[in-house]
Amino acid sequence: GISVHFHLGGGGFLGGKPRILRAVENVSFAIGEGETLALVGESGSGKSTLGNVVAGLQPPTAGTLRFRGRTLDRATWPQARRSIQIVFQDPFGALDPRMPVSAIIAEPLRIQGIGTPAERRARTAALVEQVGLPVDALNRYPHEFSGGQRQRIAIARALAPDPALIVADEPLSALDVSIQSQVLNLMKELQERLGLSYLFISHDLAVVNHLVDRVAVLYLGRLVELAPRQLLFDRPSHPYTQALLHAVPRIGRKRARGQTIKGEMPSPLNPPPGCVFHPRCPKAQDVCRTTAPILEPAPGRAAHMSACHFKE
Ligand code: SF4
Ligand code: MG
């Protein structure tokens, strides 16, 4: 039931009422051990905000997080923190240019007081190897590395405290296409070896198709569809997902149902009433303009959730 609302002042030199930006609205999902859940949506859909909430970087306005059965609050976050790490989109901005790689990777250990200095050094050296960087990377600085290598450094840093879950916020988007599959393969390999869970945030459904178990589709801060990957790709239920898939070129498959999406996503400052997708939805009826649909199973498919009055 996570919501994140930003209060944007108002009454200042622009006058007017205080405004509320509803970045995330009543979103619920679970991620299993060793599972990869993709969080997909256009830019501005709230996916990074939601990722930051899961990683403990952004407190939710409402709702609760649970980790291994325990509600995360002021008392329980400190213990859970090492188990939930994040990798950001921009491998250039995410690494302190003044720190050698060894210090960058050891940082979460140092901050949380995990291990002795000697143990941290040994762990850091092992991690560099695990993510496929040369051993001499330890004494070098971020600017000496390519984008793909920097993302490996960021992944090593996330792995340092031996996490259970990694939030990966568009980890491939800033990389050359030729490098993307290498980093993706590394993430897969690490998952198999370490039993990691991923919340994999992406605007790119084609990338998602290679890694994930389930897909959550976000639109204007709302979860509109949540389904096992194959079901979502083969039989999308929600008109928005159908439109998204329609835009993805795929080889050897018939085109997904639905039409190309029209118009732009409305502002989260002023979401439409009823179903927030109705101004753009080719299937919209009167009820859609007044009543918000709830996320519930598609007919005959318990694991396939869709928020639409006329779900397929
Ligand atoms: Fe479209 Fe109505 Fe379904 Fe919303 S509830 S996605 S407007 S058909
Ligand atoms: Mg983002």
From TrEMBL:
Keywords: ATP-binding, Nucleotide-binding, Transport
Any Pfam family the entry gives: oligo_HPY
InterPro entries referenced in this protein's UniProt entry, alphabetically: AAA+_ATPase (IPR003593), ABC_transp_ATP-bind (IPR050319), ABC_transporter-like_ATP-bd (IPR003439), ABC_transporter-like_CS (IPR017871), Oligopep_ABC_C (IPR013563), P-loop_NTPase (IPR027417)
Xref: Gene3D superfamilies: P-loop containing nucleotide triphosphate hydrolases (3.40.50.300)
Localization per record: Cell inner membrane
Keyword Nucleus annotated: no
Topological type in the membrane: Peripheral membrane protein
Chief location category: membrane
Annotated GO biological process: peptide transport; transmembrane transport
Domain ABC transporter: 1-245
Cellular component aspect of the GO annotation: plasma membrane
Superkingdom classification of source: Bacteria
Coiled-coil intervals: none
Family named by the database record: Belongs to the ABC transporter superfamily.
Protein's recorded name: ATP-binding cassette domain-containing protein
